[in-house]
Amino acid sequence: MRAGRDGKDALNFRIEGTCDPAAKYRRLSIVTLNGSSFVARHDNPGLCNGDSWQLLASAGKRGQQGLKGERGPIGPLAITPRIASTAIDAGYNLIILYTDNACDTIPLRPAFEQFQMETGGT
Prior knowledge:
The chain is mainly beta.
């Protein structure tokens, strides 16, 4: 027996997703089928849920249906504000005015200063 190389010889599980009957699986491949998960016992295990697969976790039973609730009243339509106007003030701030009269201010001076520094501008 030879020594391993930094874990490269170790066997690891490989999560493969939903079982595909046309796929070729290897030892320790994990697949799901009908809400349960299975692990392949050896390479080329054949169709899932056969003797070459080990059940890992079984799908549980469906729970009882809860009580039916009543539908609440329909709320008002959402109004999405749009940009009504923009301006740049003397301090290099972008002012955005929306159709609902809300306002945002975005400072641009730091961006201009960064640009000048990166491009060597004066």
